[in-house]
Design goal:
The structure holds two protein chains of two kinds.
Chain A lengths: L1 E4 L3 H6 L1 H13 L3 E3 L9 H6 L2 H15 L4 E4 L2 H19 L5 E3 L14 E3 L31 H8 L3 E3 H8 L12 E4 L3 H6 L5 H7 L5 E3 L14 H4 L1 H18 L3 E4 L2 H13 L5 E4 H6 L6
Parallel strand pairs in A: 1-2, 1-3, 3-6, 7-8, 7-9, 9-10
Antiparallel strand pairs in A: 4-5
Helix pairs in contact in A: 4-5, 5-6, 11-12
Chain B lengths: L10 H8 L3 H23 L4 H17 L1 H14 L3 E5 L2 H15 L3 E4 L3 H5 L2 H7 L3 E4 L2 H8 L16 H15 L11 H18 L2 E4 L3 E3 L4 E6 L3 H7 L3 E7 L3 E2 L2 H15 L7 E6 L6 E7 L3 H5 L15 H5 L1 H6 L10 H12 L4 H5 L9 H5 L6 H9 L6 H15 L1 H14 L12 H4 L12 H8 L5
Parallel strand pairs in B: 1-10, 2-3, 2-4, 4-7, 5-8, 7-10
Antiparallel strand pairs in B: 5-6, 6-9
Helix pairs in contact in B: 3-12, 9-10, 16-19, 20-21
The chains are: A alpha/beta, B alpha/beta.
Amino acid sequence: MRVALFITCVNDTLFPGTGRAVVTLLRRLGCDVDFPRAQTCCGQMHVNTGYPEEGRRLARHFVDVFASYDAVVAPSGSCAAMVREQYPRLARTAAAPAPALAPVRAGSGTSGGLIAGTVETSAPRAGEPGPAAPPRGSGPAPAPRAAEPGSFAAEVAELVPKVYDLSEFLVDVLGVTDVGAYFPHRVTYHPTCHSMRILRVGDRPTRLLERVRGLELVPLPGADECCGFGGTFAVKNPAVSAAMCADKVHNVATTGAEVLCAADNSCLMHIGGTLKRQRTGVRIMHLAEILAATETIR
Amino acid sequence: MSGTFLGMPAFPANAAVAVRDSQLRYNLRKATRTIRGRRALVVDELTDWAELRRAGKEIKDHTLRNLEHYLLRMEEAVTAAGGHVHWAADAEEANRIVAGLVKATGETTVVKVKSMATQEIGLNEALLAEGITAYETDLAELIVQLGDDWPSHILVPAIHRNRSEIREIFREKMADWGRSAPEDLTDDPRALAEAARLHLRERFLSTKVAVSGANFMIAETGTLVVLESEGNGRMCLTLPETLISVVGIEKLLPSWRDLEVFLQLLPRSSTGERMNPYTSTWTGATEGQEFHLVLLDNGRTNVLADEVGRQALRCIRCSACLNVCPVYERAGGHAYGSVYPGPIGAILTPQLRGTASELDASLPYASTLCGACFDACPVAIDIPEVLVHLRGKVRHSRAERLGMRAAGWVFDRPRRLARAQRLGGRLRRFVPGRLPGPLSAWTDTRDIPDIPAESFRDWWDRTDGGAR
C-alpha cells in the first residue's frame, strides 16, 4: 500500500517533529510511507477566512499531488476534515453556477407582487405549484448533481474516501490499537472539534492511547468544548478566544496531567501557548509523538 | 431591523467588553449550561430523534421550495375563516400596517405576546412614534422592557439578568408602566413571578388590542400556533377584541400532520421539556373579535434565493444553538447587535440586513466553526457551512486581502514555501515574545511556539525520508 503523508503546512513549518513521528510510527507498522514533495497547504485558512477562490486553487493543487496514492494520512483532524467535507463543496460550486432564479408570479388578490423576491425554479417538484398541494414524500433536496467524469468534482469524489486522519488510518485501515508504544506519563486528551464533529473519529484516539504501555490516561473535564482557536478566529476575536482557552487550560490543570495530547497541532499551539504563558508546566504533545515513542527511542 | 442596534461596534469589540463582565459571564454560564443539560436529557431519551430531525428538515425544505403555493393557500384559508391577511415586503410596511390597524380601533395601547418578528422590525418603537404604547407580557420580555434593555437570547431574553437584578428592575420601574411592585418584594423567584402576574393581569383585562407572532402557520386550515410556558400568551390571544399577528413567511407548515413533528422538536430543543405547558392555536376570527395576519418578508425571499444560505430559513427559533455555543456563552447576546443572537443570528442577521455595516460584516466571523450548533440544531441547519459561505461574500480589509494573497502566492509553489520556511528558521532567534500590530492579538495571551531550525520537508530531503 502506497501511503502518502499529508503533513499539513502548520506541521511542516512549525511542528516537524510530529511529521517525523508519523513516519517512524507508520514504518514500524509496516507501511511504505512517501512524502509528496509538491504538497503545500490544503487551503483551509483561505476558505474558512472567506477566500474561496484561493482555497479552490490550493484544493486543485492538492488533488493533483495526492490523486495517485492508495491512502493519504494527515496528522491533523482539521485538515483531513477540510479535504473530506469542504473539497466536495468547493468542487460543486466550481462546476455549477447558481440555479437560475425567476421572479415570483404575481400572486392573487392582495398578495400581488408584495413578496418581492425570487424563488428557485429548479425545484425538483413536478409542475408549478398550483391549487393542488405539491407532491410530497419524495426526496426533498434537489438530487445531488452527479459529478461529470473527468471533472474536478469527480476527481475530488475519488480522492476523498482515501484521506484519513492518523487515528482513523491506524484503527480502521491497519486495524491496530496497540502500536507498540511506551510512554510512562500522566496524559489527558483533548478531542478537538473537527476530529469529533466532522470526521467523527469517536474514541479511536483514546483507544490508541489506552494501549500505550506506562501511559496513565486521565479524562479531561469539558473535553468536548472548543478550545477557542478557530483558525483566524484566534486573532479576529482574541477576547473570546482567550476566554475559551482560559476555561480549557483550567480544565487541563485540574487533571494533574503532565502532558496535554491532541491530534491537531493548531489547537495545541493555541492551548499550549496559553499553558506556557501561564507557566503551568504542562506540555503539549501530538498523538503521533506519543504513539511513536518506544522504550528505546524517546 | 430595530433601529436600536444601529451604529453598534463590530462583534469583537462588543465581545471584548462582555468577557470582562463577571456577573454577565456567571449568569450566562449558569443559564446556558442548565438548559443545555436539560435538552441533552430529553433529546437522548428519544430513540427516533435523528428521524424526527430529518423529517423537520425535509418538511421545512419542501415548504420553502413551494412557499408561494402555501402562502396563497394560507391567505385563502384565513380569509375564509373570517380573518384579514396583509402582505408586508419590509419592516416599514409591516409597521405601517399594524399602526393603521391599531389606530382604526381607536385604542392607544396594545398588549404583546413575545414575538421575534415584531422585534426584528422594531414595532414597539414604530408604534410609540404613532402615540401607541406596546406592553410586553412575556415575563422575560417584561423584564427587558422595564429595564430599558435589549433581549439577549431567543428563548430567555433576560438571560443576562439574575434574580436580584430583576428585583431591582421591578421595584424601580414597574410603577412607571402600571401596577407597582409590592413594597416587600424579595428576589425569591415565586415572589417575582407573583409581582409580574399582578402587574400583567390588570393590563390583560383592560387592553382591547393584542399583537402576537406565531411559531407556526398551518396552510391547509389557516391556523396559527403559539407555544409558550407562562400562559400570558394565551391571555393575549384570547382576551382582546382585536388580534394582530405579525409572522415571517418562513413559518409555514403545509398541514397539521407536519405540526406533530415540530411539537416534539421544538420544546425538547428549546426549554428541554418533553412538552411545553401552553400550545394555543387559532383559525380566523370568532364572533365579536377581529383577526389580522401580517405576512412579513423583510429580506426573507433574498435569503431564499441563496442556495447555501437559505437553510437558515428552516430555523424554528428554539435557541439550542445558543445554549451550546462557546462563543455565545462568553460574549452574550448583545454583542451580536441583533434580536437574533448566537450562531443562528450570525448567519441570519447578515442575510436579512446585508453586510454593509461593520457589525453585520463581523458576524460570520463570530464563530470558531466548532460545529456544536449544527449537532444541536433540530432542523439540521449546517451553521458552519453557512458561516463559511457568508465569509466568502463579505468585504475584507485591504491588509487582510494582501496578507491572504501573499500566503496564497507562497502556497502556490512548494519551492516558495520551502524558502519562506528557511527564512523563518534563520530569523527564529529574533522573533520577539510579543508580536507587533494585529499579531499582538495572539501574543497578548499566548506564547508563540518555538520556530524549528529545519522544516519537515527539509528534514525529509536532507535525510532522504529518514533513511540517512
